[in-house]
């Protein structure tokens, strides 16, 4: 079992020696949630509820905000971002290691295959012709890699993934199980008889460095050019990205999102679960698309939208508040309408009497 002193933990998270409050020589062997932390564990507290309980913690060390001022029974490490620091420590204690190494004789590999140092290819993987893999690439069982694919260093392709011909993946990419990269985009045009004629999809998918795709993602190849997933993008499970879409750097896409063709999504955008985004739109940098939103218009940089059709989030909140009152409002409007009709009849009667 791996172990680290608090001084070594501080190095991993780029903390200073003076950020350790307690015994820097204390050893921990695991990183666990706050409620499970014992003497050999490191944990973190990043909100008022957990920070109020640090005084009772049995943990070997607790990572806390720099603003923490309460009593503590555990050793402390001060951090600007305790959750981020804890994530980096977890990466040390729980590294991703494949259960196989080398290139299996049970894999099917085409001609002109190039593999970098320490590449691992599992049994039952299929790799086509003219494929290039970088160093320390890991290909899990039942993966299909088409002709002409190029994959960068330290990339992991999990089980049952299909990466179709000529697609390009960068370094440190993770492709979740059962994802399909480079299937044909959904492109058809009607003929004179109203039948749908397929438009050949001749482009590729390009995925840049440090992208992580969840399970069962489908990213379609471009009609021409590329569908482009730029550096640092993270997607949840069951995400569909259509042909010629560009996703900007460090954007987050949550589960069950669908993005139609040729839409451009900016940098550091957040797209919440089950949102649908129409085609040929522009989503500005740092925009936020709310859950189940239906986006049919461009979204300006930094804006937060919700609802279907999308609207500013503050307006959507007012709409939601009003929805629950609609039955009572309908009754009030109906009553007012009846009163108005009665008044109009009375006034009409009075006018008739005056005319007589």
From TrEMBL:
<keyword id="KW-0175">Coiled coil</keyword>
<keyword id="KW-0808">Transferase</keyword>
<keyword id="KW-0444">Lipid biosynthesis</keyword>
<dbReference type="GO" id="GO:0016410">
    <property type="term" value="F:N-acyltransferase activity"/>
</dbReference>
<keyword id="KW-0012">Acyltransferase</keyword>
<dbReference type="InterPro" id="IPR007691">
    <property type="entry name" value="LpxD"/>
</dbReference>
<comment type="subunit">
    <text>Homotrimer.</text>
</comment>
<feature type="coiled-coil region">
    <location>
        <begin position="326"/>
        <end position="353"/>
    </location>
</feature>
<dbReference type="InterPro" id="IPR001451">
    <property type="entry name" value="Hexapep"/>
</dbReference>
<dbReference type="Pfam" id="PF00132">
    <property type="entry name" value="Hexapep"/>
</dbReference>
<dbReference type="InterPro" id="IPR011004">
    <property type="entry name" value="Trimer_LpxA-like_sf"/>
</dbReference>
<dbReference type="Pfam" id="PF04613">
    <property type="entry name" value="LpxD"/>
</dbReference>
<protein>
    <recommendedName>
        <fullName>UDP-3-O-acylglucosamine N-acyltransferase</fullName>
        <ecNumber>2.3.1.191</ecNumber>
    </recommendedName>
</protein>
<comment type="function">
    <text>Catalyzes the N-acylation of UDP-3-O-acylglucosamine using 3-hydroxyacyl-ACP as the acyl donor. Is involved in the biosynthesis of lipid A, a phosphorylated glycolipid that anchors the lipopolysaccharide to the outer membrane of the cell.</text>
</comment>
<dbReference type="InterPro" id="IPR020573">
    <property type="entry name" value="UDP_GlcNAc_AcTrfase_non-rep"/>
</dbReference>
<feature type="active site" description="Proton acceptor">
    <location>
        <position position="243"/>
    </location>
</feature>
<comment type="similarity">
    <text>Belongs to the transferase hexapeptide repeat family. LpxD subfamily.</text>
</comment>
<dbReference type="GO" id="GO:0009245">
    <property type="term" value="P:lipid A biosynthetic process"/>
</dbReference>
<dbReference type="GO" id="GO:0016020">
    <property type="term" value="C:membrane"/>
</dbReference>
<dbReference type="GO" id="GO:0103118">
    <property type="term" value="F:UDP-3-O-[(3R)-3-hydroxyacyl]-glucosamine N-acyltransferase activity"/>
</dbReference>
<comment type="pathway">
    <text>Bacterial outer membrane biogenesis; LPS lipid A biosynthesis.</text>
</comment>
<keyword id="KW-0677">Repeat</keyword>
<feature type="domain" description="UDP-3-O-[3-hydroxymyristoyl] glucosamine N-acyltransferase non-repeat region">
    <location>
        <begin position="27"/>
        <end position="91"/>
    </location>
</feature>
<keyword id="KW-0443">Lipid metabolism</keyword>
<dbReference type="InterPro" id="IPR018357">
    <property type="entry name" value="Hexapep_transf_CS"/>
</dbReference>
<keyword id="KW-0441">Lipid A biosynthesis</keyword>
């Amino acid at each position: 079992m791996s172990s680290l002193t608090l001084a070594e933990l501080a190095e991993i998270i780029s903390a200073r020696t003076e950020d350790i409050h307690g015994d820097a020589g204390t050893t921990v062997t695991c990183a666990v949630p706050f409620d499970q932390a014992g003497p050999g564990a490191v944990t973190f507290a990043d909100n008022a509820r957990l920070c109020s309980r640090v005084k009772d913690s049995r943990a070997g060390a607790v990572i806390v905000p720099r603003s923490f001022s309460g009593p503590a029974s555990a050793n402390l490490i001060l951090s600007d971002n305790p959750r981020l620091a804890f994530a980096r420590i977890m990466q040390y204690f729980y590294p991703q290691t494949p259960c196989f190494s080398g290139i299996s004789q049970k894999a099917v590999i085409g001609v002109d295959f190039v593999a970098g140092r320490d590449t691992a290819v599992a049994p039952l993987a299929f790799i086509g012709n003219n494929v290039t893999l970088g160093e320390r690439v890991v290909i899990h069982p039942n993966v299909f890699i088409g002709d002409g694919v190029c994959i960068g260093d330290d990339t992991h392709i999990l089980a049952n993934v299909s990466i179709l011909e000529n697609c390009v993946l960068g370094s440190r990419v993770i492709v979740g199980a059962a994802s399909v990269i480079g299937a044909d985009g959904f492109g058809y045009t009607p003929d004179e008889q109203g039948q749908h004629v397929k438009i050949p999809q001749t482009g590729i998918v390009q995925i840049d460095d440090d992208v992580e795709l969840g399970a069962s993602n489908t990213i379609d190849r471009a009609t021409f050019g590329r569908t482009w997933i730029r550096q640092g993008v993270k997607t949840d499970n069951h995400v569909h990205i259509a042909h010629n879409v560009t996703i900007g750097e460090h954007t987050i896409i949550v589960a069950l999102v669908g993005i139609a063709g040729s839409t451009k999504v900016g940098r550091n955008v957040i797209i919440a679960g089950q949102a649908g985004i129409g085609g040929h739109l522009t989503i500005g940098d740092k925009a936020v698309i709310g859950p189940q939103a239906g986006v049919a218009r461009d979204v300006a940089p930094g804006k937060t939208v919700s609802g279907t059709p999308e609207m500013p989030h503050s307006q959507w909140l007012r709409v939601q508040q009003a929805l629950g009152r609609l039955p009572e409002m309908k009754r009030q409007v109906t009553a007012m309408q009846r009163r108005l009709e009665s008044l109009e009849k009375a006034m009409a009667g009075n006018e008739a009497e005056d005319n007589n």
